[in-house]
Amino acid sequence: MPFGRPGGQMYGPHAHCVRCPPGGRNVPFGRPGGHVINLLGLDAAGLAALFANLGEKPFRGKQVSHWVHQRLVGDVEAMTDLSRALRAKLAAVAAVRGPVVVSDTTAADGTRKWLLDVGAGNAVEMVYIPEDDRGTLCISSQAGCALDCAFCSTGKQGFSRNLTTAEIVGQLWHANRALLADGISAPWVDQGRAPITNVVLMGMGEPLANYDSVVSALGTFLDDNAYGLSRRRVTLSTSGLVPAIDRLREACPVALAISLHAGNDPLRDRLVPINRKYPLAQLLAACLRYLDRAPRDFVTFEYVMLDGVNDTTDHAHELAALVRDIPCKFNLIPWNPFPGAAFRTSPRARILAFQKVLMDRGFVTTVRKTRGDDIDAACGQLAGRVQDRTKRHIRMRVAAAATTAH
Questions:
Q1: How far apart are CA 90 and CA 316, in angstroms?
Q2: Domain housing 148
Q3: For residue 385, what pLDDT is reported?
């Protein structure tokens, strides 16, 4: 039977996380502090513990995981292979609370963006990117971002809070449900697989700054009793929190992407301020350590192309020299504009010249196709709605006003 319907089967055995935080980080979606347990926020260990506390056998956790993550039910009462008495017992303490959708927009190229309410005036965005051979979901991990990368719309919104495990997993749960409900047509869906085949943590926020909730969510993504994704099909993108990269290597080594964007420390200090704490030498050493456990034999370096800033052939040669000892691939990203930004997108010819230098030096180098820019869903454009606790947006307005006054 198809994924998301009673009797649905998952698609083959996959390795799963080890040493993830037991039980997950769990509060109701978008409503921190609630007393009802959100089943979306419990990983395998958490579900087993829940049923142990209810006086039930641990295998009940696997049954419920199938219902929630494979059959995608939103109501405990729909879990019909549990007895009525057990359903009533479970419903008294737990529920499936998916995201509240503020808006749902589809671009001309089929890219789809959801804006999700996470409470207290905050909303985050997730993006579905359809391809002929896969369906990718770009997931957010924080409401806002504290790292303040110079070229990123999310960072300019400031930071409010980390998302819970339930809020992270709930994005994948909702996307699969919504796509199935809309009658998505794809060969793998016809074969009984879920619409979403790949997950990238490249949405709003720095995933490794929300380590515990993210790693718990990764465990659910990879769990054969939940979504059963291969570690090769889950990619985490980080700006370079070196200690957390090392922790991820030990706990749950999925595919790794690094937001690099510069080949020297002074330029990266300006574009990616976390580089001042973890400079390039430390970051690249962490990448080499990570590859010992990684599901792929390379790291992906993401490089946003900024006109006149980091996009010359000299920059490309410098970059190639920097990573010469790192098994890697490059993904060049034409910068996507957003209001108030001080950058311009590199001309296409310059991007291609940059790519040629890297390829001539032996590096696999792709230029990312811009998707969903007509609905502000492209890379670097996600902003959501953030109640900024850093007051960054106020400082930006003051600085802009001072510049205008002069």
A1: 57
A2: 100-404
A3: 57
